[in-house]
Amino acid sequence: MSSPAAVEAVHSAGPTGRPVPPEPQTSPEAQAAPDRQPPSVASGRDLRLDLFRGLALWFIFLNHIPNNVVNWITNRNFGFSDATEIFVFISGYTAAMVYGRQIDTSGTIVTSARILRRAWQLYVAFIFLFVIYLAEISYVVGSFSNPLYAEEMGALQFLAEPDVALVEALLLKFRPANMDVLPLYIVLLATFPPILCALKWRPDATLAASLLLWLAANHWGFNLPAYPEDRMWFFNPFAWQFLFVFGGWCGLGGSDRLGGLVQSPVILVLAVIYLLVSLVVVISWWWPPLEGLVPETIGEIIYPISKTDLSPLRLLHFLALAVVVVRLIPVASPMLRWHLLRPMIRTGQHSLEVFCFGVFLSFAAHFVLNEVDSSLTMQLVLSVAGISLMVGLSYLLSWYARVERDIAVRKMADRSG
């Protein structure tokens, strides 16, 4: 398994736009992942999923730190889409792939119960993250007498009426800045059991229905209400469900059916052209020499490039990027076994914990840059240190899961002996 920060919204939507997997090793999605060394392709696991989910988590962390020069290396600065599309697509792909196999072995009811249990675990993680994150923000606001942090991080409502804000958070309607991805994934996973069944037996019809819902959400703009009452969900689940369902469709065999299309030289050329055009348009938003590059008549058509509703230009950019990546990095690519990429792969195997940890780290880095030192050196140090801590957490979780599994194996051996 980007990103939900408000600063990303303005950038991603353009000048006139509006403004967390297999999961950890204990989850069903991650049980297919070994804990010792990143597996080879022969193990049947597509390491590209973990690799790019890990990359998305790194990008999300960097994008959540305002005024940080390092976040200029993230993909949101070079095209219409960003790390969020990567995260949601891969989450749908792995969920369908893993739970789809479980339907075949355990049945629909048991598998649906497992999916809902996982959604409940994500909900508990969201509440835990919400409480600790608000405590972190409140402490900084009180200790440094700077209410701007509360406004910037979307915590004013909590400080003004904490009882109401807490209830709204329990309903997934109130979320401070940088926390929007998790509620989206909770809703997508909680509604996944019937969608998974439909994908298993009528995959194309299910994908078509999902596409129609996405088109309707973009055309009419309906969304779920948020708190305060004048707001809506930052990630419209009626729109973003299509990318999740499309990932599930691919995970259940759709990617094989698209193989001929992806391998087409014509499609590759069109994808590259679209990526280059997107790159030039995005650069024109922040580089003065290219200001006004997009004619006003065209701008009226393409803007706003809404992140909230997953606008067609964002979706098309992600698909074009996916075509190029699949062509450049096939499933058997030797680079997937490079030692240099192992930290990123390991990060992607523990997306829930790493995402939550990254939210804390990004606010801490934001605080340091505002109150201590905002120099270029400090920006680099905080960015590298944050990613290093996220990688360290992922390795710690892998080690713990391995120890737990070894203990379970020994107990089973003792019983059988």
Question: Could you explain the architecture of this structure?
Answer:
- With 417 residues, the protein is mainly α.
- Helices cover 68% and strands 0% of the residues.
- It contains 18 helices and no strands.
- The chain has helices at residues 6-13, 47-63, 83-106, 108-144, 148-152, 156-160, 162-170, 181-190, 192-201, 203-220, 237-257, 259-262, 265-286, 296-302, 312-328, 342-348, 351-371, 376-416.
- Helix 10 packs antiparallel against helix 11 (237-257).
- The longest helix has 41 residues, at 376-416.
- The radius of gyration is 21 Å and the shape is globular.
- The chain starts with 5 loop residues before the first helix and ends with a helix.
- The relative contact order is 0.17.
- Mean pLDDT is 87; it is low at 1-43.
